[in-house]
Amino acid sequence: MRTLVLNAGYEPLAVVSFKRAIVLVMNEKAAVIEHVDDNPIKGTQQAYDRPAVIILTRYVRVPGARNIPVTRRGVLRRDSQRCAYCSKSASTIDHVLPRSRGGADTWENLVACCLRCNNVKGDRTPQEMNWSLRIIPRPPRGTQWTVRGTDRTDPSWEPYLELAA
Predict the structure, then answer these.
(1) Where is the HNH nuclease domain (predicted)?
(2) Which residue spans within 7-162 are E strands per DSSP?
(3) What is the SS3 assignment for 99?
(4) Taking 90 as the threshold, does the pLDDT of residue 120 lie above it?
């Protein structure tokens, strides 16, 4: 079971394990605002609701803009597993400007690509192939990218994730 952690200002911070959430609540560092309707957890002195969403009692400062690291899996997810050139199912990634010509491993230079298009394109740019990109490669945005674990959400989290979107 997983629990959504909100900052004191109701912004989503992270998804933590059920055990970590209980520890935060027992140490009075967080309060339960949504709970699962199962049996409560019985401690030595009191019973605790099973938390689905907790809010921290003190505001935690989040450092600047959260940079999302570029990964193969992330590029495929951003592009919905579709080739940027032909829209077929993608299993590889491609550098729009090839690495041999100075292309970097950035969100703006990487796209999902099917194996056939990747092999045909080779070490050329889309302009040299007279191809056009189906999407404009950009860094991903949204809470499911900045808050780890929100790609598989619980229905009770929806109102809190919508506030941050």
Answers:
(1) 70-119
(2) 12-17, 30-42, 47-56, 92-95, 110-113
(3) helix
(4) yes
Buried b (16+ CB within 10 A) or exposed e, 20-29: bbbebbeeee
- pTM score: 0.60
Identity (one letter) of the amino acid at 5? V
CB 75 within 8 A of CB 91: no
Give percent above pLDDT 70 in the chain. Answer: 88
The token pair that represents 90 in the structure block: 């993608």
* Amino acid identity, position 63: P
**Predicted pLDDT at 61:** 85
Contact 96, 126 (CB under 8 A): yes
Tell me how far apart the alpha carbons of residues 91 and 125 are, in angstroms, rounded to a whole number.
19
Environment class of 136 (CB within 10 Å of its CB; exposed 0-12, middle 13-18, buried 19+): exposed
- The 47-56 sheet, strands edge to edge: 12-17, 2-6, 47-56, 30-42
- Do 53 and 85 form a contact (C-beta atoms < 8 A)? no
Share of the chain above pLDDT 90, in %: 47
| Token digits of residue 67 | 């940079």
The partner residues of 14 in beta bridges, in order of sequence, read 5
CA 41 to chain centre: 30
